[in-house]
Recover the amino acids of this structure.
């Protein structure tokens, strides 16, 4: 895989975008019909302490 191919396939976020507000905004019916939407998956790290084994 060439260097340019790797960069093209990497997910990106535009500079200055407010992640919580912009990425959680639902697409309108018109945007969906035109195919102008992106599926967004949010991953959250659970920072709780692990449970003790029984």
């Amino acid at each position: 895989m060439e260097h340019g191919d790797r960069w093209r396939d990497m997910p990106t976020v535009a500079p200055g975008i407010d992640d919580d507000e912009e990425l959680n905004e639902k697409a309108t019916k018109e945007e969906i019909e035109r195919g102008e939407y992106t599926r967004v998956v949010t991953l959250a790290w659970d920072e709780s302490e692990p449970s003790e084994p029984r």
Notes: The chain is about 35% helix and 0% strand.
